[in-house]
């Protein structure tokens, strides 16, 4: 079985560089890269100190994309008490990125930008042919309010995979839909609890599906 959330799903199957979301998604990635490389500690090849200014901007961009408009509009960022948006990002988002070597963050972005499931032989850029060649049992799951990869885009690509099962997570969490830490804000559109979700029978109790593409050997 292969699969994972977000980039993990991309590495398993999803064409993150193809499809109608391509230009918009690339702008998101380039803005994150620019945030890091505009920091004074960027040397052109690496960093000569912690790029805190760049990481703060990086966190702001991620916070605006990863969670949905409804997440903020319904006040879920205030679940632990009144807090300004700036303080929310500084305390809830920034620490996660400061734990990483910033060079690894740039490597992640560059990998994402370059990923193309249809590139090279034998498909030569033909996305329909690439996805149509998949023979494994496949589940493609989208978040209802995911700003990275919309339900419409995901449904279009799932339809190109023979026999693929498509499901939508009803959640205001956006791209983070299905996160085990916030499961109360997510549910499969079929209405089943995660422990009974038939999309991923081997892992459903351990790994709620969040923008995941999982391929199961026949």
Can I get a quick summary?
This protein is of the alpha+beta class and 218 residues long. It is built from 9 helices and 4 strands, in the order H-H-H-H-H-H-H-H-E-H-E-E-E. It has a 4-stranded mixed sheet.
Task: Describe the 3D structure.
The chain has 218 residues and is α+β, with helices and mostly antiparallel strands. The chain folds into 2 domains: 7-13 and 127-216, no CATH class; 23-114, Orthogonal Bundle (Rna Polymerase Sigma Factor, Chain: A), CATH 1.10.1740. Helix content is 38%, strand content 10%. It is built from 9 helices and 4 strands, in the order H-H-H-H-H-H-H-H-E-H-E-E-E. The chain has helices at 7-12, 22-37, 52-66, 69-73, 85-92, 94-98, 102-114, 127-132, 151-158; strands spanning 137-143, 165-171, 186-188, 213-216. The chain has a 4-stranded mixed sheet with strand order 3-2-1-4. Helix 2 (22-37) runs antiparallel to helix 3. The relative contact order is 0.18. Residues 194-218 have low confidence and may be disordered.
Give the SSE map:
Blueprint: H1 7-12, H2 22-37, H3 52-66, H4 69-73, H5 85-92, H6 94-98, H7 102-114, H8 127-132, E1 137-143, H9 151-158, E2 165-171, E3 186-188, E4 213-216
- Could you spell the SSE succession in H and E letters? HHHHHHHHEHEEE
Strand order of the largest sheet: 3-2-1-4
Rounded mean pLDDT is: 79
Distance between the termini: 10 Å
Basic shape: flat
The largest sheet is: 4 strands, mixed
How large is the radius of gyration? Answer: 18 Å
Count of DSSP strands: 4
Question: Approximately how much helix is present in the residues?
Answer: 25-40%
The total of helices stands at: 9
What is the count of structural domains? 2
How large a portion of the residues is in β-strands, by DSSP E? 5-15%
Assembly status: single chain
Question: Low-confidence spans: pLDDT under 50, at least 5 residues?
Answer: 194-218
What class would the helix/strand composition place it in?
alpha+beta
């Amino acid at each position: 079985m292969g699969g994972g959330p977000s980039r993990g799903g991309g590495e398993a199957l999803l064409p993150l560089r193809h499809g109608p979301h391509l230009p918009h998604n690339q702008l998101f990635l380039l803005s994150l890269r620019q945030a890091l490389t505009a920091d004074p500690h960027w040397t052109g090849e690496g960093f000569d100190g912690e790029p805190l200014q760049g990481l703060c901007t990086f966190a702001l961009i991620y916070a605006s994309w990863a969670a949905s408009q409804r997440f903020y509009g319904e006040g879920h960022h205030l679940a632990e008490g009144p807090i300004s948006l700036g303080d929310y990002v500084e305390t809830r988002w920034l620490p996660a990125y400061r734990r990483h070597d910033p060079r690894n963050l740039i490597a992640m972005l560059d990998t994402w930008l370059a990923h193309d499931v249809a590139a090279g032989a034998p498909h030569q850029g033909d996305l329909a042919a690439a996805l149509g060649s998949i023979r494994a049992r496949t589940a493609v799951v989208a978040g209802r309010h995911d700003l990275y990869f919309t339900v419409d885009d995901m449904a279009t690509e799932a339809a190109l995979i023979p026999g693929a099962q498509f499901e939508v997570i009803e959640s205001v969490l956006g791209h983070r839909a299905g996160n085990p830490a916030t499961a109360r804000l997510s549910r499969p559109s079929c209405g089943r609890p995660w422990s009974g979700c038939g999309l991923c029978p081997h892992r459903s109790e351990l790994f709620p599906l969040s923008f995941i593409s999982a391929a199961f050997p026949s």
